[in-house]
Specification:
Elements: H1 9-21, H2 34-49, E1 53-55, E2 71-72, E3 92-94, H3 102-119
Antiparallel strand pairs: 1-2, 1-3
Helix pairs in contact: 1-2, 2-3
Length: 120
């Protein structure tokens, strides 16, 4: 396996998460080239976009609503921000595990889509 020196915990976490969730690379031994690592990263980003945001059709302002039911926003529908009406006021939220703020969420998704588009 390539020796990769990740000083910051986010890349280490992302690399570990991609390895665990990957169907292509079940063992670090399969990462022989930078191309292998790039494929692993692209697969992780593609998978991760499907769990980036959640939405609900339940209205918390409605007194009859006792529970909110959330579902992941599919990656191909994910486009957070006011311009696309994917905001908290309309029932769209960043998934609780995503390390970003509401303000930077749209930029994160734009960058992820740009990376994936370049690799196609």
């Amino acid at each position: 396996m390539k020796q990769i020196n990740f000083q910051h915990p986010y890349p280490r976490y992302g690399f570990a998460a991609a390895l665990v969730s990957s169907q292509l690379f079940n063992y670090p031994d399969h990462l022989e080239t930078w191309e292998d690592i790039k494929k692993l990263a692209m697969e992780g980003i593609k998978t991760g976009l499907g769990f980036f945001s959640v939405s609900t059709k339940d209205d918390p302002k409605n007194e009859g609503v006792k529970k909110l039911h959330f579902k992941p926003v599919p990656a191909d529908e994910l486009n957070p921000g006011k311009a696309n009406n994917q905001i908290a006021a309309t029932g769209y939220f960043i998934a609780p595990h995503v390390v970003t703020s509401d303000g930077s969420a749209a930029n994160t998704v734009v960058e992820a889509h740009a990376l994936l588009k370049r690799e196609m």
